[in-house]
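## Example pair
The file below holds two records. Each record gives the amino-acid sequence first, followed by its C-alpha cell line.
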Amino acid sequence: VTRNVSSAMATAATPAAAAAAAALHCKVVVGVIGAGRIGELHLRDLFSRVHHVRVAAVAEVKPKDSLLRLLADQEEAVRPVLVSDYHELLRDPRINAVVVCTFTKCHVQICLDALAAGKHVFCEKPVSYDLASLSLLMQKTKETGLVFQVGFNRRFDSNFQRVKELFSSGVVGTPHTIRITSRDPTYDLNYLRESAKAGGIYYDFTIHDFDMLRFLVGPSLKVRELVSMGSALLAKEIADFGDIDTSVVTLTLDSGCLAIIDNSRRAVYGYDQRVEIFGSAGCLIVNNEQQSSTTILTRELPATDKIRWFFSDRYAEAFVTEMQAFIDCVRKKQPPPVTLEDAYNAVLLAECATKSLHERCIQKVPTPTY
C-alpha cells in the first residue's frame, strides 16, 4: 500500500514526467516521400518491423506496381494514402515526421519544407552534394529544435558497432592502418550516368566509407589530408561520363594513422564489405557475411557458401535498427545518432577526394565551417 501511495504522489508531483511517459506509448505518425527502391525498403520495415510508428501517407510521383501491391496488402483501416505531391503530405496535421527517399537533387528543398511544416526528418544519404546547403539545413534544424537524422545505415550494423566498441576500448592499442573495402556486385550504366552528373563515385558511393571511417575512429581522430586515385576499368562509357569505377583513397589522420578505402562498382562474387583496423597491440577484422554458415567438405576442396549479394540483404537488420533509432529519438525528444554534421564531414571528404583525383595531388582537408 505504501508503495502504491508513494507512486501516486510521485506521479501527481511530476505532471511533466507523467506526460513524457504517456508520450512514449503513442505512435509516431510518419509520411514517406519518395518510394523507389530504398523508399519501398523503408516502407516494408515501417509496416512490419519498426515499433511505435504508423505510416499515414506516401508521396510518389510515379508509383511502381510493387508499391501499389505493398500498399494494397495493408489493412484498410491503417492503409496509407498515396499522393503525388509531397506538399499535400506535409499539410497533414496527423503526421509528426517524414522519411525522405527521393533523388538527392530534391532532398534539400523537401527537407526545408518539412522543417518549416514542423515535421521531424529522416533523410537518405547523401542529403546534399553541396556544403552550403547542408549548413543551411543545420541552421534550420537548430532553429526548429526538430530531429534530423541522416541515413548512413552502415553505422547500425552490429559487426561495425562491435568493432567501434572494441577500438574505443583500446584493445588494438595505437592504430597504424585502417582498411575499408566496399565493392558492389554489379552496376547499371544509366544509374552511373546520373551519378556522374551529380559529382561521381566519391559523392554517391565512397561517401558511405568516409562516414564509416569517421564512425569507427570517433571524434578524437580527424583526417588531415588525403590522396585519391582511380580508373574506369569496367566500361568505356563510365570514362565518357567523366567518372571512374575503381578507386583507392589513402587518408592520413592527425595521429599519423593511415586509412585506405578501396572501391569497385563490380565484384562478381557478391557484395564485398570488409573492415580491418591494425594497431600496436592487435588487429580487428570484419569479414563478409555469407548467405549461410554452411561449410562443404568434399574430396576436392572445402568450400563455404557465397557472400550476400547486395546492400538490401547485407544490411537488412541495420536498416531496421536505423529506422527504429529515428522513431525512438522523435518519441523521446533525443538528438539523433547520425546528424547533419556527419553528413557535412562526409561530403567534405568526398569533395577533397574528387579534387585530388582530378588535380592528381594530395589534398589538405579543411576544418569544417558549419
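Second record, same layout:
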Amino acid sequence: LHVNHSLKELDLSLTGIPDAGISALAEALMVNQTLEKLDLRDIGLSAKAASALASALCVNHSLKVLNFFGNVIPHAGVSSLAGALMVNQSLEELDLRYTGLSAEGTIRLASALCVNSSLKVLNLFGNKIPDAGVSALA
C-alpha cells in the first residue's frame, strides 16, 4: 500500500492480523492515496490497533468505507476513532456493528458527528447502547 497506486479495496476480515500488522497497515494508510474500502471484520482488533488506524484516518484522504464489524473495541479505541472522525473528511461509511460500544464511546461518536461532514452511514447495529448514548445520538 505504500507504493501501490491501483488497489481500491482490501478485505482482511477473519485474518486475526496481530497489532504489529495493523500498525504497519496504518502507516501505509497514511501515505496511500487510492484505497477506498478497508474490511477488517472480526480480526480481534485491540484498542492499540484501533488507535493506530485512527491516527491514519486523521491524514488519509482516500478511504471511504471502513468496516470494523464484530471487533469488540475497547473505549480507548472508540475514543481515538471518534477523534479521527472530527478531522477526517473522506470517510463516508463506518460499520461498527457488534463492537460492544459503551455509553462513553457512543457519546464521543455523537460529538464527532456534529463536526464531521463526510460520513453518510454509521452502522451501530448489534450494540447494546445505554440511554445516555442514545440521547447523545438523538
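Notes on the second record: The chain has a mean pLDDT of 95. The radius of gyration is 14 Å.
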